[in-house]
Design brief:
Length: about 150
């Protein structure tokens, strides 16, 4: 979030981007918000300065190829896929696995990191369903047991 409004690292998926902008009361399109001062760099390797640190958003086919170079000097790195198991680097990494737990994030000019789930509250669709396996004695019997079985 900048003084001019939310700066987006990319315009897609537009549903998510439009949701953030609408919640801000901002009437611009995601493409216009992406053009705001804040993020720079080529598609798939967008970066911004945030609280004196480099914030890098890696996306697309070359995201993993750019990970090692981006994950240095204490940067904040947002990766749209899962980082390789055991990957280490000098950065705070938000990959697909960690973002599945936190949900979408907003890095505010004030230094605050906000989670979309905190803003939206507990909803049926915000967390993965908790599956329970019924106890054996509560499972339905086989309606057509094999011949000879009782």
């Amino acid at each position: 979030m900048t003084p001019e409004g939310r700066a987006l690292s990319k315009a897609a998926p537009s549903f998510t981007a439009e949701g953030w902008l609408e919640a801000d009361g901002d009437a611009v399109t995601p493409k216009e918000a992406m053009a705001r001062a804040g993020f720079s760099g080529k598609r798939g390797v967008r970066q911004a300065d945030w609280q004196g640190r480099r914030l890098v958003h890696l996306s697309g086919k070359a995201a993993l190829d750019n990970l090692e170079n981006a994950c240095r000097d204490g940067a904040l790195v947002v990766l749209d896929t899962a980082a390789p198991r055991g990957f280490t680097g000098d950065c705070r990494l938000y990959d697909r696995r960690s973002l599945a737990r936190t949900g979408a994030l907003s890095f505010e000019v004030s230094g605050q990191i906000r989670r979309a789930r905190e803003e939206a509250g507990q909803r049926l669709w915000t967390d993965p369903p908790q599956r329970k396996t019924p106890p054996e004695d509560r499972t339905a019997p086989d309606p057509d047991p094999p011949e000879g079985a009782q």
